[in-house]
Design brief:
The chain is 0% helix and 50% strand. With 154 residues, the chain is an all-beta fold. It has a 5-stranded mixed beta sheet, with no helix packed on it. It has a 4-stranded antiparallel beta sheet with strand order 2-9-4-7, with no helix packed on it.
């Protein structure tokens, strides 16, 4: 993984990465974006049992922050964001541990909705319910019909 801006790992979108961030280190990924393109980014760490408390930042090639996320609501301390880029070009994603502990992670980037919460969050046993989603970049995501089991042990 790229540990400096100069050695940033190049991503071809969409992509997925598995890695490990050292306690005091940062990892950098370089990716292209088109003007008006929305790209989503998500780090799974806490949700897979890692001690890593991720924070992600989108930077221009000079290292200036465009946007960032530390704890996305509903994701147990993991990071997630969607960003629409104003100008075409190459950008950087910085990943680090906000607590400087380090640990393994899974990271994905591409054109996907950042759903964090199903609505409703519960259903009556044996019923069918139409589930929609809350989160960023979920406009246009169709509800899903779910059948709740009659017996919760099955």
């Amino acid at each position: 993984m790229g540990v400096t801006i100069a050695t940033a790992q190049v991503l071809s979108l969409p992509s997925g990465v598995e890695g490990n961030v050292g306690g005091l280190t940062k990892q950098y990924f370089k990716f292209p974006a088109q003007a008006g393109q929305t790209i989503s980014f998500e780090v799974l760490a806490r949700r897979i049992g890692s001690p890593l408390d991720p924070v992600i930042r989108i930077l221009d090639l000079n290292g200036k922050e465009i946007t960032s996320n530390d704890d996305a609501p509903g994701l147990g301390g993991d990071s997630q964001l969607s960003h629409t880029f104003a100008a075409a070009g190459e950008y950087l994603l910085e990943l680090r541990d906000i607590k400087f502990q380090g640990g393994p992670y899974r990271f994905r980037s591409g054109d996907f909705p950042c759903a964090t919460t199903p609505i409703p969050m519960a259903a009556k046993r044996g019923s069918k319910v139409s589930v929609r989603f809350a989160g960023s970049n979920v406009a246009g995501v169709a509800p899903v019909e779910v059948s709740a089991p009659s017996d919760p042990l099955v």
